[in-house]
Amino acid sequence: MRALLLFLVSLSTLCAPTTKEVFKTNDIIWGFDFISKDRIIMSLKGGKIVEYDLKSKKSHSVDIPDVKVTGQGGLLDIRYFEVKGTPYLYYTYAKEVGDTVVTALARSKYSSFKTSGHKLLFTSKIHSSTGRHFGSRIERVGEDLFMSIGDRGERKYAQDLNYHNGKILRLTLEGKAAAKNPFASTKNALPEIWSYGHRNPQGLYYDESSKALYSCEFGPRGGDELNLIEEKKNYGWPVITYGKEYWGPSIGDEAKEGMEQPLTHWTPSISPSGMTKYTGDKNSKWKGSFFLATLGDTHLHRVEIDKKKVVKEERLLDSLGERIRNVRTGLDGELYISTDSGKILTVHQ
């Protein structure tokens, strides 16, 4: 029996996914995207954007102005988009405005190993004195830009449409409220809001095949969520949640009419950060699966979704022991992750 158990353990180890380190720095790699098959662009929480060539190993970094590094805030997500033929880097960051720190969106023009013309596009209207829950993930859908903002540690404002706390926004590529947003004509509501009632959504992904926008967010003690994001919907925080206060008691109910239920939720917490759908060709068994980077639970979480419902989940890379901040499919077909220890790795099934 002991021999059989040892064989099964050895077999599971042989079948476990592997990783390969392709880049290392000394700061948290909060976001990353791909310029080409060989070039990665990264946002370091401390305020630098780094471009790295996988073949030549050449790198270049630039400091972004106005980044306030405080608590969970700093330089946050980054994406590469072409707009009317002009290449840009879009990025979110914590910005000091008066006596508070807000989530802001900016962009710079991009050319090979160069950025220029930092331009502030959007500054959120926030009620907060904390350095928590910035959200900050961005996702382009056609000519629209979705942007997540956490409740900033002021939970009641996630239900207040006068503030951007705890909201997912729909903006133009110039940082303005997109046309026909659901609250554009609503009194005492901000026109950028697409959905509300979020705690700290750090994952945001638009699935082109199903025309669906997904988000994952941190709960408090338990109650992490994966949500299908739809316009004008209320996702409940803090009125409903499966999580508890850190010191024990319930926060709210688990369900209420007029508020959305998550596709799935996790207690104990897995601390989901970035998310993606694997669309590459290097890991055939994973094609079409969604992946969530997890922080406190230090693993890569695989989710299968069929007809907008979760049908299977799997934990990967438990033995890696890394706080995984983000995950994306590379233009070369590989699956990439970034870590809070400053690594970019590829993952192989």
From TrEMBL:
Keyword DNA-binding on entry: no
Domain of life per record: Bacteria
Chain ranges of the Glucose/Sorbosone dehydrogenase domain: 29-344
Signal peptide: 1-15
A Pfam entry, by short name: GSDH
InterPro entries hit by this protein: 6-blade_b-propeller_TolB-like, Glc/Sorbosone_DH, Quinoprot_gluc/sorb_DH_b-prop
Keywords annotated in UniProt: Signal
PANTHER family (alphabetical): ALDOSE SUGAR DEHYDROGENASE YLII, HEDGEHOG-INTERACTING PROTEIN
Protein name, per record: Exported protein
Organism of derivation: Halobacteriovorax marinus (strain ATCC BAA-682 / DSM 15412 / SJ)
